[in-house]
Amino acid sequence: MQTVAPSVFVLPDEAHLELIKVRDHLRLMTRFVEPGSVALDDCVLHPHALSYWFTTLWRTLDECLRATYWSGDPALDLEEAHARAAAIRERNEDLRGVAE
User: Fold this and answer.
1) Is the CA virtual torsion 90, 93, 94, 95 positive or negative?
2) Residue 92 Cα distances to 15, 19, 21, 45, angstroms
3) Phi-psi region for residue 97, left (φ > 0), alpha (ψ -120 to 50) or beta?
4) So what's the pLDDT on residue 39?
5) pLDDT(99) > 90
6) 13, 85 contact by CB (below 8 A)
7) Which helix (H) or strand (E) holds 8?
8) What is the DSSP string of 15-63?
9) Cα distance between residue 52 and residue 33, in whole Å
10) Burial of 22 (C-beta count, 10 Å sphere; 0-12/13-18/19+)
11) N or C: which end of the chain has fewer CB within 10 A?
């Protein structure tokens, strides 16, 4: 009897790093808005700043989801993983102003 390969979702390293950065940023933002936080008293969050932050959050999550793909055998899909990781790397370089 032939066994069925398990479903595997592949997350390129760059997408994983982006998720770690989002997690850490969310943790930091939580500290700013905790009741009794000094930062909350000293900081005024303007709608533009919140809009920018939420837009950045959903774009990053969207890119990570697009970079994630299903594979029966991730070793066979290595080229696809590199292409998706390159797209995330390129966006990060654009944001940092890195010129080639």
Assistant:
1) positive
2) 11, 13, 12, 25
3) left
4) 65
5) no
6) yes
7) strand 8-10
8) HHHHHHHHHHHHHHHHHHHSTT-HHHHH----HHHHHHHHHHHHHHHHH
9) 17
10) middle
11) N
CB-based contact 8:74 (threshold 8 Å): yes
Q: pLDDT, tens digit, for every residue of 1-26?
A: 565 555 677 788 888 999 999 999 88
In the structure encoding, which two tokens stand for residue 45, read together? 């969050």
What does DSSP say about strands 69-71 and 8-10: parallel, antiparallel, or unpaired?
antiparallel
| 71 CB-contact burial (10 Å; exposed 0-12 / middle 13-18 / buried 19+) | middle
- The sign of the torsion formed by the CA atoms of 87, 83, 66, 60 equals negative
The DSSP letter of residue 73 is -
Paired tokens of 37: 């936080």
AA letter at 2: Q
